[in-house]
Specification:
By secondary structure, this protein is mainly beta. It is built from 2 helices and 15 strands. It is elongated and about 70 Å long.
């Protein structure tokens, strides 16, 4: 709910600033050839959430989830100015990986229990289409921008206990809205540095299973939940640093 509240607030702010800028005094902005930019970037995502039983009929099981720490990745965007110099659109793709080896779960047998540590590994590949517009410049070389868009999210999940790792059976992409803000500093007409903050709730579904039904811990066999039907939300803030080549 907080995520969609952020979307509404950013959208209202964006529209307000857009019309304010449109009615303000117009001055010639930096024109960069045909208005294309290619932006490779390195990214950090602050967190992710795994919904463990999203299709359960039991409301308590359905709300059961675990939170993971952040991860890193890389990406590339192709941006094009359209209609006016302060308005552009971009198609972007990225690869993000989160590896959290500090996830605990309690396993039960008939007469005992054991608290074990799992490793959760997530991979997400988003494809996003975003619109950007610049708010009034602070200087000739610095641009502040806001934007919004939509994305499709593909990914995978692996859970590992010791030398036992889950095997993926099927994957299904999900969709989400995106809001963003950032700044761009021009070192020259051709090269600029870009810092961006992106808010989204990228989700996808993974069906997987363990190859065994139990695990031996200290001489006692504990049953494992073999079927892992999960929904993954890479819902943390995305911070990216990129270098834009403009032509």
């Amino acid at each position: 709910m907080k995520f969609f509240t952020n979307i509404i607030l950013f959208t209202v702010l964006s529209v307000s600033l857009f019309y304010t800028d449109a009615r303000s005094q117009h001055r010639q902005e930096l024109t960069l050839g045909n208005g294309f930019s290619i932006i490779p970037s390195v990214n950090y995502v602050s967190s992710a959430t795994i919904q463990l039983s999203p299709f359960s009929k039991d409301i308590i099981e359905r709300s059961s989830s675990i939170s993971l720490s952040g991860g890193y990745g890389y990406g590339i965007s192709i941006k094009k100015k359209l209609f006016r110099n302060d308005l552009s659109f971009a198609l972007s793709a990225e690869y993000t990986k989160i590896n959290d080896d500090n996830v605990f779960q309690t396993l039960f047998s008939d007469s005992s229990r054991a608290r074990v540590k799992f490793t959760e590994e997530l991979v997400m590949i988003p494809i996003e289409l975003s619109g950007y517009f610049n708010i009034p410049d602070f200087s000739e070389d610095l641009k502040i921008f806001l934007g919004a868009g939509v994305g499709a999210y593909f990914g995978d999940r692996k859970r590992t206990l010791g030398n036992i790792q889950s095997k993926t059976i099927s994957k299904q992409a999900g969709f989400s809205f995106v809001v963003l803000s950032g700044l761009e500093y021009y070192f020259s007409r051709k090269v600029s540095g870009v810092f961006e903050i992106r808010f989204r709730e990228g989700e996808y579904t993974v069906k997987s299973e363990f190859p065994v039904s139990s695990v031996n811990i200290g001489g006692t066999f504990f049953p494992l939940e073999r079927n892992l039907n999960s929904k993954i939300y890479v819902d943390g803030l995305k911070l990216s640093f990129g270098l834009s080549y403009n032509f």
